[in-house]
Specification:
Length: 142
Amino acid sequence: MALAALTVLAVADFAAAAAREDELKRVINRNTGFAHTTRGMNMYTPIALRSCVTDADLPVLRRLLFDRDYVTQLSAAGVLVDMGAGGRAALVSALPEATEYRARSTIQDALREGRSGAEAAQRLPARARERKRIRGCRAAAH
């Protein structure tokens, strides 16, 4: 009986983490831009993602470092740096697992540069119309 209960809890936890990962990917995708037909981060991407996450999301952001999508990797790495010591620890712990060059260099760059620019972008004198373009999470951050 106890084993069955643990199995149910493990499956529920995995499903919740997968749902949260999907939600954060949607935030990234809604806040990317295109230049010369190339998809990439813009100043809204890290602001939107950072506004949706808490320390409880560190494991999810760490998993996003290994996503196939480069914009997702960049966004996760930048936000982890902005999250302070816990985020930096997540980056450092992910580095040995980063066997793919792009993921490894993204993590190394984030650690070396020290922040993603989300904090600086928040201070930009943006107009209200521009601020409305930032599309974060639907519900309050977890």
